[in-house]
Specification:
This protein is of the alpha/beta class and 348 residues long. It has 10 helices and 16 strands. Helix content is 23%, strand content 25%.
Length: 348
């Protein structure tokens, strides 16, 4: 029997009985990596659960997802792209008290793990020996008026319709959660959600407060231009700190500048280059690096975090940063990585 044991660079090979079995220990890198949860500190923090775009690549980034902590407690999830559940598992965070989910828009790389994470909330309650009856609040854009060509059918539903299509009784495709949540808790928990549709008309948009809690958590939203896709950007405020998340946006017009004013941290869609890809659709839907820099400069943002990294921008990320600097932005500039934690006021 061959047993391969790797620990701290030490390799031991034992040979017994002439039969080969190989048991490989946990990857040293994973073993050495401190749980992301242990890095959360201060009054307002952001944990990146997904810094990638819609394409599965060897870089291994999950699609868009960011967790907001207030005073070390997980409070808000912004988008839930594919890979979120794996990142959440690696983070060490228990989300049984999670209340708020913000969806910037209804593309799959921003919603793909929604049900998996909602189900995890109830599993985390079960493991903690607690129950849950208060609703999970889901915020996202209203439907827009752009129809499919030759029809009157809107291309995108409202967030309310999207959620009901998944979870409502008796017709939701994942309606089993209504029974599941109660069954695993032996009747102590009840599956419950509330949906809040947000304005999605870009022209004349203003920053709106969509949530304000007794302990001072404030969520604001503003419509942004993502072509025909109803989309919003979010601003999280707590105890004098602020985080803005662009979602996906072409960023034409003043909307991103308005919602980002004096933000401590701006998380920005970094999917395209000015010269690539050639397909003009992507340049309608996303923001070129120079415009990212212009927004951050005009809004006086303290730290800019480049995220939603794609195969287009990943190999040219140094060039992206150089372009942003060339337009005059001098604040802190970082590239998002999955499981990285950004605590406001922390140079890390």
């Amino acid at each position: 029997m061959h047993i391969l044991i790797a620990r701290g660079g030490v390799l031991a090979l034992l040979v017994m009985m002439g039969i080969s079995f190989v048991a490989i220990a946990d990857d040293d890198r994973d073993e050495a990596m401190e749980l992301a949860m242990k890095k959360v500190k201060g009054e307002l923090s952001v944990m990146v659960l997904g810094s990638g775009g819609p394409v599965a690549t060897s870089a291994g980034r999950a699609s868009a997802d960011y967790m907001i902590f207030t005073d070390g407690k997980p409070r808000v999830l912004m988008d839930l792209g594919g890979g979120t559940c794996k990142s959440l598992a690696q983070s060490g965070v228990n989300i049984h008290d999670m209340e708020y989910i913000l969806l910037s828009h209804l593309h799959a790389d921003h919603t793909g793990d929604l049900t998996s994470v909602i189900k995890t909330i109830y599993f985390h309650n079960n493991r903690a020996g607690t129950s849950r009856t208060n609703p999970i609040h889901i915020y996202g854009p209203r439907k827009n008026g752009a129809p499919f060509p030759g029809t009157t059918i809107p291309q995108y539903p409202s967030t309310t319709t999207y959620a009901h299509d998944h979870y409502a009784m008796p017709s939701g495709s994942e309606r089993y959660l209504n029974i599941f949540a109660t069954a695993i808790s032996q009747g102590a928990s009840k599956f419950s959600y509330m949906v809040h549709d947000l304005n999605s008309s870009v022209a004349g948009a203003t920053v709106e407060t969509v949530l304000s809690t007794n302990d001072g958590l404030v969520v604001k939203a503003m419509e942004v231009d993502h072509g025909p896709v109803p989309a919003v950007a979010f601003r999280i405020e707590y105890k004098g700190h602020s985080v803005v998340y662009s979602g996906d946006t072409g960023s034409r017009g003043p909307n991103m500048v308005s919602i980002s004013q004096d933000a401590d941290l701006l998380i920005y869609d970094t999917a395209i280059m000015a010269d690539e890809p050639a397909n003009p659709v992507f340049h309608v839907l996303h923001t070129e690096p120079a415009r990212i820099g212009e927004v951050a400069l005009a809004a006086n943002v303290k730290k800019l975090l480049l995220s939603h990294i794609t195969p287009v921008t990943d190999p040219r990320i140094k060039e992206v940063k150089s372009i942003i600097r060339q337009v005059g932005y001098t604040g802190k500039l970082k590239v998002a990585k999955d499981l990285k934690v950004y605590s406001l006021g922390d140079d890390d």
